[in-house]
Amino acid sequence: MAEILQNQGSHRILAVMAGPEGESPLQLLELAGRTAYQSRDKISKESAARFVEMLRKRGHESVIEHSAMIVEFNNVSRGFTHELVRHRLASFTQESTRYVDESDFRVVIPPDKD
Questions:
Q1: What is the spatial distance between Cα 93 and Cα 96, in angstroms, rounded to a whole number?
Q2: In this predicted model, what pLDDT tens digit does every residue of 74-90 receive, in sequence order?
Q3: How many separate domains does the chain show?
Q4: Which of 51, 60, 87, 94 lies 20 to 30 Å from 37 when distance is taken between CA atoms?
């Protein structure tokens, strides 16, 4: 007979990746996120946690996907795993047209197709 596990799911973080220069995961998130806001010049030793919290509060959570960790899930439902695998494998952040002044913009024209 099958055992029914209700609210028994668990997870365990196996690894959290650091940057090539020893940057913490929060520092990597800040670097990626500040690309969207064109504000890399505001990075300081203390700014990462505050910046990432601002992203979370604004709902700009796709930037959080730039950090990497390995997580093991146990005793979770098939529905949970289906939702988990439906999320993107890779994430991209680019300069935001909502948050950056584009009054002095540049246009890139692709090469002709000959």
A1: 8
A2: 877 767 777 777 765 55
A3: 1
A4: 87
Per-residue pLDDT reduced to its tens digit, 48-81: 999 999 998 998 888 887 778 788 888 777 677 7
Residues across the chain = 114
Q: Which amino acid is at 6?
A: Q
Question: In this structure, is residue 39 part of a structural domain?
Answer: yes
Contacts of 15 (CB under 8 A, 6+ apart): 69, 70
* Separation of alpha carbons 25 and 106, rounded Å: 32
Q: How far is CA 113 from CA 24, 66, 107, 109, 110, in A?
A: 43, 34, 18, 12, 9
What SS3 state is found at 34?
Answer: helix
